[in-house]
Amino acid sequence: MKITIVGSGYVGLVTGTCFAEVGIEVTCVDIDSKKIENLKKGIIPIYEPGLEPMVIRNIEKGRLFFSTDLKSVITAGTDMIFTAVGTPPGEDGSADLQYVINVAREIGRYMQDYMLVVTKSTVPVGTAEKVRQAIQEELNKRGVSIPFDVASNPEFLKEGDAINDFLKPDRIVVGIDSDKAREIFERLYKPFTLNGHPIIFMDIPSAEMTKYAANSMLATKISFMNDIANLCELVGADVNMVRKGIGSDSRIGNKFIYPGIGYGGSCFPKDVKALIHTATEYGYQLSVLKAVEEVNENQKLVLYKKLNTYYNGQLKDKTIAIWGLSFKPNTDDMREAPSIPIIRQLLSAGAKVKAYDPVAIDEARQRYFGNQIEYSNDPYEATIDADALLLVTEWPEFKFPNFNVVKKLMRHPVVFDGRNIYSKQEMKEIGFDYFGIGIPS
Question: What is the pLDDT of residues 241-266, one digit of tens each?
Fold first, then answer.
């Protein structure tokens, strides 16, 4: 079986590599020639645990290929094409579909035989029909009649654990409207279903909606818990105890109810905005999701507000250490990361920022802060002469630092824990002032 993945970003590269891992011949196509040349050498553009050796292995096995020429890939023959190009949010929150439609038009220009075209990108309900229309328009221009199907196969990948999510999925959601498309998907995913991972077939609009609904539900749990955490501080309750109490209820569960400083990344913020926009287009207001988004934006500055209150609004010339820049551990992705508004507020207040992250420093320097902040080589270096330490991302190496050493390095021993990974009692015993999320002072 031969498949093509258009778009070699996070979703496309993981998808293509994992399909190759189970024995399928895959060609990943991208317009970025430098990226493709690097990929051919096994140099990948993202940080994702386990991905680089898997890419190299499948290149060497002759199952994974890279190209910038979609026309040649199509004319050489392929069983199905996945579009995994970007759908960035517009100013109004809508998903920008221009890249998805451009790929569809190119497929229509060059396809010679039956083709199954699958949207892997996260796209609003109705996108498959737009893809179908774009392909048909190009076929009409050519004056040819070639059968094709469109389908939706949304991804459910967590950054930092994407390979495991793909190879051992909770479910595989597929939206189709033909028996032929179903047969192709059953053949494609046979290695997964043999291992007990279920395919859920449904109509195309439902599949498109499922992706948005899933991410929006998870975002809702996060914002709800953050809202509760903020109230806990006011009434004197401990959100960690509350979390355990409600998480033991099987109807609620214990996942995504950890309080913190808001969600970020490339999916949740974009998908919540897109779903709100879709509802607006149909004359409906998603009031819950609007509140989810508002809570999240406010939550990203909770640590800054605690710090500012601690120093009575006098942050000018203070040195603030930041542990963690990426939006979550095990990725260098800083899109919508809480670290960004926190650092910007600190800089605006006249503070000096010293930051450390295991993998995201280059991303921070190149795309966000340049030389406005100081980048440290390890966590301890960041705390030298610091007036406060802000834990922003819960990387494993931050969980058990030697705080006796940290206390000696800092000018003033105070920690603002944005992920509640430290014990308030233990920190106070060492001699730190400690502030968490949803924990009484």
Answer: 999 999 999 999 999 999 999 999 98
Give dist(CA 355, CA 337) in Å, integer: 14
Number of C-beta neighbours around residue 313 at 10 A? 9
CA–CA dist 33, 38 (Å, integer): 9
Q: What is the pLDDT of residue 128?
A: 96
**Dist CA 353 CA 368 (whole Å):** 14
In the chain, the amino acid numbered 283 is G
Catalytic residue among 18, 28, 232, 267: 267
Tokens matching residue 417:
């824990």
What are the backbone angles phi and psi of residue 196, rounded to the nearest 5°?
Answer: 90, 10
Residue 441 forms part of a structural domain: no
> Do 191 and 167 share a domain, yes or no?
yes
What pTM was estimated for this model as a whole? Answer: 0.92
Q: Does residue 267 carry a catalytic annotation?
A: yes
On whether both 189 and 326 belong to a single domain, the answer is no
Residue 19, amino acid: F
pLDDT computed for residue 53 by the predictor = 96
